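User: Last request for today: this protein with zinc ion, please.
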Amino acid sequence: MKGADRVAAVGVGYSKTGRRSGLTSWQLAIQAAKAALADAGMTPQDLDGVALLWGVAGPAPAGLDIVEPMDFGYMLGCGPLNWYGEAGPAYIGPAIQAVAAIKSGMAHTVLTLRIIRQRMSSAEQLASEGAMAQPMQVGGDAQFTAPFGSVSPVQSIAALPAQRHMDLFGTTEEQFGAHVVAQRHFATLNEDAIFRDPLTIEDYLNSRYISTPVRLLDCDYPVDSASAVIYTSAERAKDFKQKPVFVDSASYSSVKYMTFENIDDMTQSSPFHAARELWKRTDLTPADVDCAQLYDGFTIIVFQWLEALGLCGVGESGPFVAAGNTALGGSMPVNTDGGACNVGRRHGANFCIESIHQLRGEAGARQVPDAKVAVWANAVGPFSGAMLMTSE
Amino acid sequence: MSTPASLSPPIPAPTPLTAFFWESLTNRQLSILRCQNCGNYVHYPRPICNVCLSEDLAPEVVSGKGTLYAHTWATQAFHPYYVDKLPYCLAVVELPEQPGLRITSNIIDTPREQVHGGMALEVVFHEISPGLTLPLFVAEGFAPVTA
Ligand SMILES: [Zn+2]
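Assistant: Here's the final one, the structure of the complex with zinc ion:
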C-alpha cells in the first residue's frame, strides 16, 4: 500500500477503563472519541465517517445502552456522514472498515471505536442461569456444542487449541507462562496498565486452571472501556497535529463456520489466511517488523499469531517465546503495553494504539528503539485480521 | 420440561434441518447429513453441499468410531449443570468417514491419564436428561497424534 493513496492513523484515545466503571456506553465512547480528536488536533467537523463495534464479549449485564455509529456521529456534531458501519470481530472490524472506506474514496476521515462492557462474572452467570425455570435452550450451530459443556470461550477458543498445540508440537505450560511473565513485565512499565506488579513463572504455574491447559493468568481481564482511533488519507494527514502513522497493509479473514470447535485446523486457523494476505499486499517482510502487538484474549492466540505471521516457524512459538525473543529487549518484542491481560479487555484496540505509540516514539520506558514497522493482529479461529503499520 | 437448569445441560433447540441429528440419537444412532449426489458429509447441517452444490442431502448413520482431535479438562463451571461434574473432558472427535469431519462431545469412563490426542474412540449413547440423548465417547485403544 505505497504511495499518496495510503491511509494514515492520526489520532488515538481511551476512555476511563476499569471494572464496572459506572459510566454508560455513550459516556465511554464520548471520552475515547474526545481524547482521539484532541490527540489529532481535530474537530468533529473534520470527520465524515464513523465505524465502531459496541458490545460485550460474553453474557451482558442487564440495562446497557447501545452505541449506534450514525447516532454517535451526530451526537458529536458531525456533519452528514459518508460512511457508517458496525463490524467485528473485536476492533479489527471497525479498523478494516475505515481503511476500506478511505482507500475506496467513499470517505476521507473515519473515527473508529471499540466500546466494550465488562461481561457478567462467572458467579453472576451461574446465578442467572441457575435461576432459569427451564433448561437453557441453545439454537444454531451451538446446539451441537453447548449440550456437551462447551459453554465458555475459554474452552473452545483457548483450551482445545492449546492442548492440541501441545500434542502436536510439544509446547509446554512453562512456555505459555514465559509469555505471560514477559508481557506482565511490559505492563510494569506502562502507567495505563491495570496490573503492574511483576510476575514470576512460579506465580503463573501456581495459578489455577480454568480449563486445562489454560490458567487464570492466560485470560484477558474484562473491563468497561472504549478505545478510539482516527484514520484519514495520507494527503489530509498533513493537516493534523500528529506525525502520521501509515497503514502499509491490512487483511481481514473469515474461514468456515462461526464456531471455534469446528474449524478446519485449530492450530492454524484464520490468522494464517490473514497473515498470508497481509504479506502479499506489501513489500515488507517479517524480518522488517520491529514489534508485534498480538491479540491475547488467551495466551494460545499470541502463539498462533507468532507462527501465522512468520515471526517464528510453525510449531516453534513455544521455544521462541521461552528463549526471550518476545520480551523487553528481545528480537521481537510482543505486546509492549502489557496486553489485554494487563491493560484490560480493550478487544484489540489497544494493540493498534500501542503500535501507533511505538511508531511515534512515545512509548516511554517500554519504547522499542527506533521502531519503524509494527504489526498488530486481532481475533482468531473463524475470523481475524491484521494490520502492518509504518512510521514512514 | 420443567427441569431446573442445574439438572440439565444446555439443551438443543432443533430446527427442521437439525432435528434428524437429535431424533437419531434417541434411537441410539449417530447420523450426519450427507450429500446424496457426491457423498460429501456436511456438518453442521446446511441445506446445500459445499462441494457440488447439490441440495439433495439426507442423514446417514455413521460408524460411531472416532479419533480424539482436541480435548480439555474443564475445571471451572460456566453453567450450573457442571458445578458438581468437574472436571469433565470436553472433546472434539474426528470421524473416520471423511477427513476433517468432526463433532463436539465428551470423553467419559476413561481414566484421565489415558486420554491423549489421537486416541481411538467409540461412541456410547447416554440419556442425559428426559428426551436428550448425547453421543459420548470412550477409549477404544491408543494411536499417537499426527500433524
Ligand atoms: Zn455434494
